[in-house]
Design brief:
Helices cover 44% and strands 17% of the residues. The strands form three sheets. Strands 3-2-1-4-5-6-10 form a seven-stranded parallel β-sheet, with helices on both faces. Strands 7-9-11 form a three-stranded mixed β-sheet. Strand 5, helix 5 and strand 6 (172-177) form a beta-alpha-beta unit. Helix 11 crosses helix 12 (326-338). The longest helix is centred in the N-terminal third of the chain and has 21 residues, at 95-115. The chain is globular and about 55 Å long. By secondary structure, it is of the alpha/beta class. The protein has two domains: 2-181 and 217-241, 3-Layer(aba) Sandwich (Rossmann fold), CATH 3.40.50.720; 190-213 and 245-278 and 299-338, UDP-galactose 4-epimerase, domain 1.
Amino acid sequence: MNVLVTGGCGFIGSNLVKYLRKHRPSWKVVNLDKLTYAGNLENLTDLENDPQHVFVRGDIGNRELVDHVILKEKIDAIMHLAAESHVDRSILGPEAFIVANVLGTNVLLEAARHARLSRFLMVSTDEVYGSLGPTGLFTETTPLDPSSPYSSSKAAADLITLAYERTFGLDVVVTRCSNNYGPYQFPEKLIPLMVANAINDKPLPVYADGTNVRDWLHVEDHCAALTLALEKGKKGECYNIGGDSERQNIQIVKAILAVVGKPESLIKYVKDRPGHDKRYAIDASKSRRELGWAPSHVFEKALGDTVKWYLDNRPWWERIVSGAYKTYFDSQYATRLKG
């Protein structure tokens, strides 16, 4: 099989490319990535001489390029991960999220439809469901109720994708995952940001009182689920993917401080962001039942391993926070501290 992975140099995308090359070695993986601030080709240096990994730098919104890649590489299916994905940035500038996440998805769907591809996998987020109270779980039938420009753009992309199955008969599957963690995550997200700040004795900005709850999913477990969804998912269906690891944000931050041996006095509570969802929790029983998938990582151990990865790979993220991305990173960090 020849698979086009969009956003294959980002956090989840690069882990997925590595996963596919390891667990589906006969597949050719074509990686289409624009290499915006969070896309890093360095994530895939171990595949630079792999003939079954083809990297193409380009924008998913460029229909001519997408058609060319599909034809040249004889693409059978698309795994669509390319997206603007940071909630805080979507509040500061929503337009980029609409362009990339909605219009870009539509370009890919049109290309897939006209090329008669065997499957289009839309990789989405549990944030499309909005916020839960203290009890309950998101199921695939939970009404969509997004709170931010980011989650709204993903909800729109989900609905457009499902409409292509109903209207045009395109074979589509939508997955919605909980918060991912693991190696190669851009240090604007909670875990790598807290690790980087802690070891440099910088304040760790935590929104409100830190009691917002997220379900945490190791990125390798997510990649396994995506692969099974591509292979076994039913046409026109949605699948929730969660790690069964609900934790308050403040619990995560304190656990990181314990691993790196830094004091909790570094925690700085800041003004909550607008529309901050209180709790996410995933019911992934459909994925277990229909895909034969289950998470394999135990959160406490996997979190420790993840923190250790960032400690062992300081040059990777230090180039981000002190090099080409320094102005961007510093501005995002300052914005969070100000609330």
